[in-house]
Structures are given as structure tokens and as C-alpha cells.
Design brief:
By secondary structure, this protein is of the alpha/beta class. It is built from three helices and seven strands; from the N terminus they run E-H-E-E-H-E-H-E-E-E. The chain has a single domain, classed as Cytidine Deaminase, domain 2. The longest helix is centred in the middle third of the chain and has 14 residues. The chain is globular. It starts with a strand and ends with a strand. The relative contact order is 0.22.
Length: about 140
């Protein structure tokens, strides 16, 4: 049975929010690795989408490198993250259509909140999203 609530360590939470703030007008993206089911490393990946201000696409070579680094560290894919600079932290129709790793959590960071950053998590499979409660450490 999949978890309905997940703890995200403060270090990872702070890194994701920092990455999003560094590029407030572009969708940032990347991977999070885990050891024993606990998220432990962020792997930022360049967004190579044609319109990175409203869509993300992981750079294929950087994604391969991140997966290689995870394997070397004995990690598994925990989550794929990206930001929504001008939209809420909910999956867009494109996010639902292109989700390729149903076993991984999808984390979305929104900068569209008045001075407060928002991050929400989802399991996406068959173009449907189930929100997962996040406990941000």
C-alpha cells in the first residue's frame, strides 16, 4: 500500500525552495534520491523544454547522470520535482499526460503565492493525480 503522508527533510525542502527562488520565472526541475525509503539527495536537472516558463522537460543527459549517481550511492528514485512560477502547486494537464514514473512522488513548488512558497506532492498514474500529504521537516 502506498503512503498517504510523506516526511520531506528540512534540508531537501530548503534546497527545493531555494532552487525555485533562483529561477522565479522558469520551471526548475530535478530528481530526489532515497535510501531506505527516506529522501536524502537532490539532483537538479536542467529544464530543456522549448518554453521553460510554463513547462518542464528534464535534460536527458543530466537525467542519466543523476540516475547513475543515485545507483553509485545505492539510492532509488524517490521523487521528480518541478516548479510552477505562475500557477498553483497542482498538476497541469501536461504534467498528468507526461508523467512517466508512477512509483515516484511528484513534487510541485508554486511561486504563485503572495510571499509564501507552496509545495505539494502527488502520485500520478494513468493521467490521474492523488495528493499525498507532505510533512515538511
Amino acid at each position: 500500500m502506498l503512503a498517504t503522508a510523506i516526511q520531506i527533510p528540512r534540508k531537501i525542502t530548503n534546497q527545493l525552495l531555494h532552487f525555485a527562488q533562483l529561477s522565479p520565472h522558469l520551471e526548475i526541475c530535478g530528481l530526489i534520491g532515497s535510501l531506505d525509503g527516506e529522501p536524502c539527495h537532490c539532483y537538479p536537472v536542467s529544464n530543456c523544454a522549448e518554453r521553460p516558463e510554463n513547462r518542464f522537460q528534464l535534460d536527458p543527459q543530466e537525467q542519466i547522470t543523476a540516475f547513475s549517481q543515485m545507483r553509485e550511492r545505492g539510492e532509488r528514485l524517490f521523487a521528480i520535482y518541478h516548479s510552477h512560477p505562475g500557477a498553483p502547486a497542482i498538476p497541469s494537464p501536461t504534467d498528468l499526460a507526461l508523467a512517466a514514473y508512477p512509483q515516484a512522488l511528484t513534487l510541485i513548488i508554486s511561486l504563485n503565492t503572495k510571499g509564501v512558497l507552496e509545495m505539494r506532492g502527488y502520485r500520478i498514474a494513468d493521467q490521474k493525480a492523488q495528493e499525498i500529504t507532505l510533512s515538511l521537516g
